[in-house]
Each structure stands twice: as structure tokens, then as C-alpha cells.
Design goal:
Structural class: alpha/beta
CATH topology: Rossmann fold
Strand order of the largest sheet: 2-1-3-4-5
Largest sheet: 5 strands, parallel
CATH architecture: 3-Layer(aba) Sandwich
Shape: globular
Order of helices and strands: EHEHEHEHEH
Number of strands: 5
CATH superfamily: Response regulator
Radius of gyration: 13 Å
Length: about 120
């Protein structure tokens, strides 16, 4: 299936996503901060990036525009993931370059609907 990069500083969130994605035959690559996420996105060219917007250091709001403007990664869809549910955060994620926005805790059905749509 698809190669998916998860960028999230929470080990538990990465583990849950990894388990769910592996169960759907996706290959998972993981980063726990923005710098590593950008490096892996450039090196591995995943089919999709699941990006936590509240990363320490470089946030997802800072990382998404870098990915969206880089010729090597601008074609990769970005699924924003955050615990902040406000409309302002949703708008900021879209403005930063994210293609979809989901909130924690994760709803597996919504997650896979978004993934399927972004990979189509």
C-alpha cells in the first residue's frame, strides 16, 4: 500500500498510528520532531505525512509550509493531527499547507477516510 511518515513527539500516538496503519498494510516511517520529519520526508519521499501540529521546537505549523514549498516534498499530502480543536487551529493548519485536519483522540474511521481520500 502506501508509505506514511508520522511526525509526532508522543510515543503512544506514534505506536497507535503505527499499529493501525500496519494493519492496513501501510509502511510506516516515524519522526519525533520537525527537523527529523523534514529530513525523512526528503529522503524517503512518503506518499502521505501525518503531522502533529504541537511539536516541540519546530511546530507542525512551521514545518508544513517548509514541506509545501520544497520541490522535493510539495507533492506529498499532509494530514494535520492535533489536540487543539478550535476553528482557528483548523484554519491555521490549512493556511500552513495541510490538506486535512483531524483532532485527537483519533477516530479510526475518520483517520482512514482521510487517508484514503488523500492517497486517491
Amino acid at each position: 500500500m502506501a508509505k506514511i511518515l508520522i511526525v509526532d513527539d508522543e510515543n503512544l500516538i506514534r505506536a497507535i498510528l503505527r499499529e493501525q496503519l500496519n494493519a492496513h498494510d501501510h509502511t510506516v516511517i516515524e519522526a519525533d520532531d520537525g527537523d527529523e520529519g523534514i529530513e525523512l520526508a526528503r529522503r524517503e519521499t512518503p506518499d502521505l505525512i501525518i503531522l502533529d501540529m504541537s511539536l516541540p521546537g519546530m511546530t507542525g505549523f512551521e514545518m508544513a509550509p517548509l514541506l509545501s514549498s520544497d520541490p522535493e516534498t510539495k507533492h506529498i499530502p499532509i494530514l494535520a493531527l492535533t489536540g487543539h480543536t478550535s476553528e482557528a487551529n483548523r484554519d491555521a493548519a490549512h493556511f500552513a499547507g495541510c490538506d486535512r485536519f483531524l483532532t485527537k483522540p483519533l477516530d479510526a474511521k475518520k483517520l482512514f477516510e482521510a487517508i484514503d481520500d488523500l492517497l486517491a
